[in-house]
Structure formats: C-alpha cells, structure tokens
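Field reference: sequence -> structure
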Amino acid sequence: MKLKGYSLPQKAYITRVMKALAGEDGPVHFIDPGVTGTGYATWVEIGGQRATRPIDCGCVKGIKKNENWQDRAYYVVGALTKVFDEYGTRVVVVEWPELWTGSSRSQTAAERGDIIKLAHLCGEIDYCCRESGFKCVLVRPSEWKGQLGKQAVINRIKRRLNNWSPTSHDADAVAMGLVAMGVF
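Structure field:
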C-alpha cells in the first residue's frame, strides 16, 4: 500500500488497522462515538486502495436525553451490536477521546465530564467487541485526521466519493475508513 502524503501517525493508524485485519478485507466498522450522537460506517471489504462508499453508515438515533449517561451508552452499544450482527464483524475501529491542549472547546468538554463519559462509552464498545470475539482498535483523532476540522473532513470525503458525504457524526466514521484504506 502506497502511503505517500500521509503523516507518521496516519501511517501508524493504517498499519494498526491492517494488522488487526490479519490479511482479511473485513467486515470493518468505524465508530465515532459521541455524547450527543454516535456515527458509524461499515465496509464489508476495505481492500483494493480504491475509495468506496461504505455499505452502511449513519448515526445511532433514539437516544433519550433525559436518561442518565450510562443508560444512553448502553443503548448506543445495543444499536451498534445490531449493525455488527447484520454485516458480520472482523474489526471495530473506535475513535478514542483526546484532550486537545489549547482548545477551549476541548477544555470545556473535559470540565463538564464529557470526555470521561465518552471514554466510558468507548470502554463499553471495546468490552462488547471482546465478548463477541471481535478485534477492537482504539485510535485518537490526531492519529487519523491530525488537525482537520469537521468541514474539511466532509470536503475531503466529497472529493474522494464523487460529491457524496454524510454531514453528521458519521462523517468522521466514513473518513476513518477512507484513511484506513489509504485513500483519504
């Protein structure tokens, strides 16, 4: 796989995903967990170094805001499990929370406890994967996208996938997949 133009962290990310696949092409699920919404993107095969749309992507919906955050995390994992079961699963790649030094938005999230809640959700997803026998790869945002903002991610997806892109939480999940394929 040619990785020209990728940063060292991105190359390491791609290598980790490919190592987890152990020579297989998938199925692979990429998860962008969130306190307000969790995006996912699924590819049955990610080989071939060709930008392809995921077979399925979306956001976990139906989360009741008045429920406590542990119950919401449990609901998200249940919804993701249905996706895993529908398409089969070899590897699940989950974006792990990261505190961005110097970012007031990141600092505010940390002070509110959102990063801890997000880490709890990631832990539940990881536990679900392990219990089901799936490999789970936890990655920091800086490993796969560097400093790119949401709109820059969406614009890149559109360039790679003939003007198609999700615009919600699943955009990062789709981009994580494209980076893993070496086509972002």
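Note: The first helix runs from residue 8 to 21.
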